[in-house]
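Lab meeting, action items carried over

1. Structure of the four-component assembly. Owner: GW. Status: complete.
Input record:
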Amino acid sequence: MPDERRPTLTDVAIRAGVSKSLVSLVMRDERGASPETRRRVLEAADELGYHPDSRARLLRSGRSRLLGVVFGIQHPFHADLVTGLYSAARETGYELALSAVTPERDESEAIRGLRQDRCEALILLGPHSSAAALTELAARIPVTVLARGLKIEGIDVVRTADATGTAQAVDHVVSLGHRRIAHIDGGRSPGAADRRRGYRSAMKRHGLEPYIWIVPGGLTEEVGAVAARELLNNLPTAVTVFNDRCATGVLDAFTRANVQVPRDISVVGYDDSSLARLAHINLTTIAQDVPTMTRQAITRLVARLEGTAVAGRESVIPPELIIRGTTAPPRT
Amino acid sequence: MPDERRPTLTDVAIRAGVSKSLVSLVMRDERGASPETRRRVLEAADELGYHPDSRARLLRSGRSRLLGVVFGIQHPFHADLVTGLYSAARETGYELALSAVTPERDESEAIRGLRQDRCEALILLGPHSSAAALTELAARIPVTVLARGLKIEGIDVVRTADATGTAQAVDHVVSLGHRRIAHIDGGRSPGAADRRRGYRSAMKRHGLEPYIWIVPGGLTEEVGAVAARELLNNLPTAVTVFNDRCATGVLDAFTRANVQVPRDISVVGYDDSSLARLAHINLTTIAQDVPTMTRQAITRLVARLEGTAVAGRESVIPPELIIRGTTAPPRT
DNA sequence: AGGACGGTCTGGAACGTTCCAGGAGGAGGC
DNA sequence: GCCTCCTCCTGGAACGTTCCAGACCGTCCT
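Predicted assembly:
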């Protein structure tokens, strides 16, 4: 690759007939250069195709303006979060550095990579690391955890009010006239406990305690289908499900068993993943407020880095009910 | 964050009582230091918790040993590819830098980010950029395109033999006894043209030219469902579908129309995505050989960077038929 | 008229590394 | 004994930035 040497500050400076310090100023959009010179410098830079070398810049300034993001590449909801994070970071002057967790690359490796790149702070999406590991990490670098509720000294958490979410789901089907409402839970997955709790207390609030029925479920379509088959023995009129993937499995099992949704049973998912929005699934679901969550995560971290005060350790975002086609009044 | 200044080469040098050049040697595992000194240096580094500063290192050496990867974060198959790339890169001494394409962050922005990080080469997964943009890019930096066949001067391509893939699908159902075999295509998506061609020529080879029936489809479940409804008017006994997502939509539409798979019709997908592997979908499909593809992409790029000769511009990997539960002999 | 000041601009010293030229000291060949 | 050649080590110059101190030059105030 006969790639000629990249142009540097000095090249631009010579071409524009000024010192490199001045060019540096202009490139950083600092004040201290007359409009006229500024124009000349930018012109010269443009002609040479100059692009600042971030490494040298970072080396000198001691800052990287880099936020590390650890996410699960197989996880659809993480994709939504990363999308939101990019948008949120755009306005702050910080860049995102992605590091994926894959079946063959664990979280600690992903974190190590980011630290070597001199990220100034870390955002972890639904991390699996032990509390001990996280505590140690947080002692060395600011950390924000997204989409997983945990209480650890020194770690910021931004999460959805999961209990409220399932409560909204229950309220919705109750308002349609349902009473026999089951819940397929998420086992030990992040958020599952809260969602279960929200279901239980909403049922009590509506005086439906006798109808409480919690079926073990999980993260995936497969366990959803299994759980649905368990419901078939004594079909409730509505069911709230841990997440959309699981709900898809539920829908599939019902279809195969010739149970029609929403005629025979109403189904509510959770996440508002792209899955739920598909026309042929068209799932009523609880949307996590991704834009708000990601914006909060970024502004929180930036505030910490710049030394601005940050209120509290935890930020809990209310979710929103999205009504689509899988809920309807019960058959009379 | 009262993070004390990181220790530097000089700190280690002082502690070990040697020059910083010597420490540098030892850290890079070069020869030129006696075993005894080497030990002392490593010990000192360890005590101080020294970690080399990659920025400074790269600045000086002019190399980053960084391979940029541009991928679509919403794209399940890209997730598989990224997983493979990480594994393939592990042994080479190069690191991966990820840059995602999201609905709000286009390919050119993703590429710009990577170039600013001084990646030495780029891997693009199913890029959408124009041929002109890619040509210009390839003139500045080595580029390998994965999972999209295109012929552009100076760009390496690693892709699946897509025509062979659909041919395998057709061969499979023909061997089961099918003759009326339709194809739901992928429109203008990457690989769609080849897959369509493979279907067509395989049908001819089996003397089934009169039965050729190509229905317009696309990437998603929704278009799959639409295409399936078109088939219902004159149901063939088997159908090969552009990809797994689309095939899932097809399956769903059939289930709703009370057409049983594989009893009434056999369905073959493409990609062997995690979707296909789900128990309740259990889709017969064509697997792209991700480990081989990603290994090739990495070794190719590394070879170019190191100046080793690379054979040809294109590397075409044969796919593999995965037989699951959606294909069976036609009803007699 | 004599400062003081604010806006422009410059030169040079960092930042933490790698690379290069070379020095000290011992071993081996003649 | 001298030259040569290793091996092990050192000092200092890069790399492309940013940061700091200060120079220059008008303007404005007193």
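2. GW to write a short summary for the group page. Key points so far: Chain B has a mean pLDDT of 91. Chain B touches chain A through 50 residues (CB under 8 Å).
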